[in-house]
């Protein structure tokens, strides 16, 4: 329905050509902005509703007691089965933070979520074979687990700058949780609206940047820079992918086209993972949630993981 509305608004109301760069950008902006706004309202609302039954300090205590990365594994697997791009994963990441789930576990989710899902798995299997698809899915999950554990050990909670005890909500650990069903619903709606109010502008800016890139920067522009078989090709491909904004599901055919032109599989996958997991619009949105220091550490850690996965696939295939 969101796509239908976006098509109607862009091509019927605005009368833009669906084949034009402007039409493609506007359609992308309308669709993704509405989708992410709705995700924030729905997901934050659901998490807030669940939280009324589980006080935040209880959740925090439960996850903090998990040993040997079991919480990170659960969050990473959850990320793998949710069909979200990097920007669409942010509402759930924020919901984890609001529920006081440890930061490393929240990172495990947001790292794996845009990289692995059932659609990507099927596309990878049908395009490159199931051996590649299984190894890619396992690699994405392991990246989320290990990177989340590393970030969790660094004690970076003080670098979270989106406060949840501003007007509209008390401190999470001490807040009053309603008992009646009606009160729980009202509380959930309020939490959703307060969160959306804090983030709507930065989301629009982030999606706007992604829309411009989507419509005006052809992926073919980047092909020439990774069509080399050298040690530096993988990190170059990862860095080149950051300015582009797209989901892995739409990138698998591009990866296949690149490999058909002689680009090593690991290098092409590094480009895909850089695009899906380290996009510029995602960075713009996360900057509202965390300090630049934490954002740089997060992006750097994930980038190193993607580069290692790229080298692994180049070695094996």
Provide a short characterization of the protein structure.
This protein has 317 residues and is mostly helical. Helices cover 73% and strands 0% of the residues.
SSE topology sketch:
Layout: H1 2-13, H2 21-51, H3 56-64, H4 70-80, H5 86-98, H6 103-112, H7 118-128, H8 130-153, H9 181-216, H10 220-226, H11 233-241, H12 248-260, H13 265-277, H14 280-286, H15 292-316
Helix pairs in contact: 1-2, 2-5, 2-9, 4-6, 4-8, 5-6, 6-8, 7-8, 7-12, 8-15, 9-14, 11-13, 11-15, 12-13, 13-15
Assign an overall shape. globular
- The number of helical segments is 15
Radius of gyration: 20 Å
In terms of DSSP E residues, the strand content is under 5%
Along the chain, the helix and strand elements come as HHHHHHHHHHHHHHH
Major sheet description: none
| Low-confidence parts | 165-174
- Domain count: 1
How does this model look, in words?
This protein is an all-alpha fold and 317 residues long. The chain has one domain. It has helices at 2-13, 21-51, 56-64, 70-80, 86-98, 103-112, 118-128, 130-153, 181-216, 220-226, 233-241, 248-260, 265-277, 280-286, 292-316. The termini are far apart. Residues 165-174 have low confidence and may be disordered.
Give keywords.
317 residues; mainly alpha; 0% strand; globular
């Amino acid at each position: 329905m969101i796509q239908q509305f976006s098509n109607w608004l862009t091509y019927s109301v605005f009368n833009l050509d669906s084949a034009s760069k402007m039409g493609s950008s506007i359609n992308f902006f309308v669709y993704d902005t509405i989708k992410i706004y709705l995700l924030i309202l729905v997901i934050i609302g659901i998490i807030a509703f669940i939280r009324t039954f589980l006080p935040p300090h209880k959740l925090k205590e439960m996850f903090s007691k998990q040993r040997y990365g079991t919480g990170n594994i659960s969050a990473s697997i959850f990320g793998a089965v949710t069909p979200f791009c990097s920007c669409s994963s942010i509402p759930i990441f924020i919901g984890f933070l609001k529920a006081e789930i440890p930061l490393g576990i929240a990172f495990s989710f947001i790292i794996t979520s845009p990289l692995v899902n059932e659609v990507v798995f099927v596309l990878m299997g049908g395009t490159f074979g199931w051996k590649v698809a299984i190894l890619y899915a396992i690699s994405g999950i392991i990246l989320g687990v290990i990177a989340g554990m590393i970030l969790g050990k660094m004690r970076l909670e003080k670098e979270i700058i989106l406060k949840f005890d501003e007007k509209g909500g008390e401190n999470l650990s001490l807040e009053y949780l309603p008992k009646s069903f009606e009160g729980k619903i009202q509380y959930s709606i309020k939490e959703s609206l307060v969160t959306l109010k804090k983030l709507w502008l930065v989301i629009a800016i982030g999606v706007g940047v992604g829309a411009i890139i989507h419509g005006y920067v052809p992926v073919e522009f980047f092909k020439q820079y990774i069509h080399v078989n050298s040690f530096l090709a993988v990190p170059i491909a990862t860095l080149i992918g950051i300015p582009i904004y797209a989901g892995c599901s739409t990138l698998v055919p591009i990866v296949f086209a690149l490999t058909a032109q002689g680009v090593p599989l690991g290098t092409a996958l590094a480009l895909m993972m850089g695009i899906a997991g380290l996009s510029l619009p995602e960075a713009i949105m996360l900057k509202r949630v965390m300090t630049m220091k934490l954002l740089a550490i997060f992006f750097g850690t994930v980038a190193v993981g993607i580069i290692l996965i790229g080298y692994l696939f180049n070695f094996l295939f």
